[in-house]
Design brief:
Length: 253
């Protein structure tokens, strides 16, 4: 058994945050690179892609709302045509930088509020999927397990990957606990690792109510670079996966 591990990168604003991101690149098999809109810039995009190429990682675009003041984590309500263009332009920008370094993109994972809104908003999810397909219909669309985003991707002919989170808490409906709520981010590494192993071995994740079992069979697991102790968590998770005979990587790596 193998599982892809991914991290959202290219969002660092300090040297320390950049070091954390670079350290994670040694521990994951896929990266989702901010495209200079919600965070990052062309320099950061180029640096991350360069390291990802050297590590042989899957490289994906991480498009978000043009709202850097809120790091792309504030819900916006744009017309579908605007969302489609927003996604298309960001994916194209990263794809061009990747080509410069002899690489190609493998996937697209929306960021922040754009991702979370698309869990239940079918119209928004469809606009995102069309934006991805406009660039390359072979790109995998990554979305939360059970979300409208995955349904939209399949509907327009994109390959899709279901994602689950190591370091985020779940609501009973299968969506993520909003970041402004207590307990939304798992800072307890033992809890985070247990959640990841439970997902992989049982196909369920325990919701924040402590009772509801949310079904999820992910193709990829995410660790956020801005979760406290992210690098130590990634190392601990990899050790736990090895202990269960689960490798890290995919046939696409």
């Amino acid at each position: 058994m193998h599982i892809d591990l991914n991290a959202d990168v290219g969002e660092a604003t300090t040297p320390l945050e950049e070091l954390v991101e670079l350290a994670l690149l040694d521990l994951v098999s896929s990266v989702n690179v901010a495209c200079g809109v919600h965070a990052g810039d062309r320099g950061a995009m180029r640096r991350v892609v360069s390291v990802a190429v050297a590590h042989g990682l899957n490289i994906g675009a991480h498009p978000g709302y043009a709202d850097p003041a809120h790091r792309g984590r504030r819900a916006l309500f744009l017309p579908p045509t605007d969302v489609r263009q927003l996604v298309r332009e960001q994916v194209m920008a990263l794809a061009a930088l990747a080509v410069e370094q002899g690489a190609g993109l493998t996937h697209v994972k929306p960021h922040g509020a754009l991702y979370n809104q698309a869990v239940a908003d079918r119209t928004l999810a469809h606009a995102i999927a069309l934006g991805v397909r406009d660039v390359d219909p072979t790109l995998r669309l990554v979305g939360l397990c059970g979300s409208q985003l995955l349904e939209a991707g399949m509907a327009v002919g994109l390959p899709v990957w279901g994602e689950a989170f190591v370091d985020r808490a779940y609501l009973p409906d299968g969506s993520l606990v909003p970041r402004d709520q207590v307990g939304a981010v798992h800072t307890d590494q033992a809890l985070a690792v247990t959640q990841a192993l439970t997902l992989l071995l049982t196909g369920f994740v325990r919701a924040c109510d402590g009772v509801t079992r949310v079904p999820a069979r992910p193709d990829t697991l995410c660790i956020h670079a801005d979760t406290p102790g992210a690098v130590a968590l990634a190392r601990r998770l990899r050790a736990a996966l090895t202990g269960k005979g689960i490798g890290v990587g995919t046939s696409h790596s």
